[in-house]
Amino acid sequence: MSLLEVKDIVMQFGGLRAVDRFSVTLDVGDIFGLIGPNGAGKTTVFNCLTGIYTPTSGSVVFSGQNLVGRKPFQVTQMGVARTFQNIRLFKELSVLDNVAISFHPRAGYQLLEAVLRLPRFLKSERKIYQEAEELLEIFGLTKRRDEKAGSLPYGEQRRLEIARALAAGPKLLLLDEPAAGMNPKETEELMNLVRWVKEQFNLTVLLIEHDMGFVMRICDRIAVLDYGVCIAQGTPKEIQSNPRVIEAYLGQEAN
After folding, report:
1. Alpha-carbon distance 198 to 207, whole Å?
2. E strand or H helix at 162
3. Percentages helix, strand, coil for the chain, rounded to the nearest 5?
4. How far apart are CA 38 and CA 127, in angstroms?
5. By CB distance 3.0 to 4.6 Å, which of 21, 75, 80, 81 could disulfide with 168?
6. How far is the C-alpha of 48 from the C-alpha of 45, rounded, in Å?
7. Which CA distances in Å does 87 have to 6, 52, 92?
8. Average pLDDT, whole number, for the chain?
9. Which regions of 14-148 does DSSP assign to beta strands (E)?
10. In what order do the strands lie in the sheet with 204-208?
11. CA distance linking residue 107 with residue 87, whole number of Å
């Protein structure tokens, strides 16, 4: 059953067409990779899916609802969460508070209840922090709970960002270069973690990644962008042997 249907999206910036008629369908439970050389338009696609950009044309349908024209917070409320290529944490807040913040849009209490600290507010806050603690345990960050997020090592900041995205309760998780800057051991741990959270949280995952070993081992299917155009889609094996993909990465015609 399809969860996300992207059809012929175009993203035009003046005379530059950053994405040119890109289409993809994600089925429930997929781990789908989006790859391509630097500047190929991958993050622009993510921005079109999450409301940061409104596509010039084309459609984005998620769980039967159109995402085009919706604001980022509305897209998140509908069940789409993402991480960013450049980590975006509240660096001066604690690790625990960074995760708890993402639960608040689903808290269920009114502003006045929070100001007056009424019973529903207090009950909801206890539940939020309990669930935030559980996510920190899953991601191996419990010992860091009271530290400032900005003080964490790079790999742990990446894990915290994924934990915070999961706190929003998504059906679709978008990961923008999750393995960037990680050493081989951290990358292996991340691969196992993504597989585990996909199963435990019933997620569909769409990821951008430059680490080809990571992509080929974790993804069910892959799409390849080059100068905004999708030049190939298929299984990892099909992508690895595709002459157009080889040409895009090597800059020369494959023999």
Report:
1. 12
2. helix 154-167
3. 45, 25, 30
4. 42
5. 81
6. 5
7. 26, 16, 14
8. 88
9. 16-27, 31-35, 57-62, 65-66, 80-82
10. 80-82, 172-176, 204-208, 31-35, 221-226, 229-234
11. 25
Q: Which residue has the tokens 């094996």?
A: 237
Neighbours of 20 (CB within 10 A): 16
Which tens digits make up the pLDDT trace of 237-251? 999 989 888 887 765
> d(Cα 218, Cα 225) in Å, to the nearest integer?
19
Token reading at 152: 């964490």
Q: Is residue 199 over pLDDT 60?
A: yes
pLDDT band at 254 (very low <50, low <70, confident <90, very high): very low
Q: Which two tokens stand for residue 140?
A: 């191996």
Taking alpha carbons only, the member of 89, 118, 124, 90 closest to residue 105 is 124
Q: Which of 33, 10, 9 is nearest to 223 (CA)?
A: 33
CA atoms of 78 and 90, how far apart (whole Å): 23
What's at 113, amino acid-wise? E
**Residue 108 to residue 200: CA distance in whole angstroms:** 24
CA distance to 13, 29, 249, per residue, from 71 (Å): 19, 25, 34
Spatial CA neighbour of 193 closest among 212, 220, 175: 175
For the stretch 12-66, pLDDT in tens is 999 899 999 999 999 999 999 999 988 899 999 999 999 999 999 999 999 999 9
Per-residue tokens: 253: 């015609």
Determine the pLDDT at residue 122: 66
Q: Which residue has the tokens 């997929």?
A: 30
**What is the band of 111 on the pLDDT scale with cuts at 50, 70, 90?**
low
- From the list 45, 56, 47, the residue with the least C-alpha distance to 6 is 45
